[in-house]
Amino acid sequence: SSLIRELLLEGVQLWRVPSGQELDIARRMSIDPLVVYAEPNYRFQASIPPAGLEQITATPDDPSLSKQWAHTLMQSKPAWDISTGSSSIIIAIIDSGIDETHPDLAAKIVPGYDFVDDDTNPHDENGHGTHVAGIAAAITNNTIGVAGMDWQARIMPVRILDYYGATNSADVADGIVWAYTNGAKVLNLSLGGYEDVTAIKEAVDAAYAAGSLVVAAMGNDNLETPAY
């Protein structure tokens, strides 16, 4: 076995162990009174946005607004009559990164991080994160693309999903911690897996305690198995 890295969660480490022995080693380590918990580094996957088009009527002039069926369900127009958001709010898109050149997003992007390549260039190689960023906070009423839910908020790309839309629980936890410690007040995770992971729970609890809101996908793959 060998140490891979320290997670951003205090006292949590990621270790490499022999393939196929992960569950057995985690079980044996959990018995040790010096170990708080041990668990495999589970795989997680992007949540695919559901299909569906529904005609809506709203104030913004974004040409693809008519395809954004969710604005009807959420009654976005009455909400926009009250407020179109605030530029003081940073929304972390913890996902596959964001296309930093996208004309409906570029002006709103703040510095982020790439946990896949371990650098500061969280460019989207999958497309999912760019899609999610547009739903959350695309530049709105600009005759381009879609209407974001929050017209004013800035967006922080935190890349944890690779080219195939896959990740692991260690990177999910690190992405959450990095986002809230770097100023994100809303953390969006449109991804999930089928294992209840202590490290992710600790990261979510820490973000919540710091005053950030964590928004997670509920799963849309039509299975009866609970998703996290």
Could you characterize the architecture of this molecule?
- The chain has six helices and ten strands; from the N terminus they run ββαβααββαββαββαβ.
- With 228 residues, it is of the alpha/beta class.
- The strands form three sheets. The protein has a five-stranded parallel beta sheet, sandwiched between helices. Strands 7-3-9 form a three-stranded antiparallel beta sheet.
- Helix 5 (169-181) packs parallel to helix 6 (198-209).
- The radius of gyration is 19 Å and the shape is elongated.
Unreliably modeled segments: 50-58
| Amount of helix | 25-40%
Write down the secondary-structure element order: EEHEHHEEHEEHEEHE
Number of helices: 6
Give the strand line-up of the largest sheet: 5-6-4-8-10
| Cα radius of gyration in angstroms | 19 Å
Question: Biggest β-sheet, characterized?
Answer: 5 strands, parallel
Shape, please? elongated
Proportion in β-strands? 15-25%
Structural class: alpha/beta
Averaged pLDDT, please?
91
Distance between the termini: 28 Å
Number of strands: 10
Task: Please provide a brief summary of the model.
Helix content is 25%, strand content 18%. The chain has 228 residues and is an alpha/beta fold.
Q: Which key phrases capture this entry?
A:
18% strand, 6 helices, single chain, elongated, alpha/beta, 228 residues, five-stranded parallel sheet, 25% helix, three-stranded antiparallel sheet
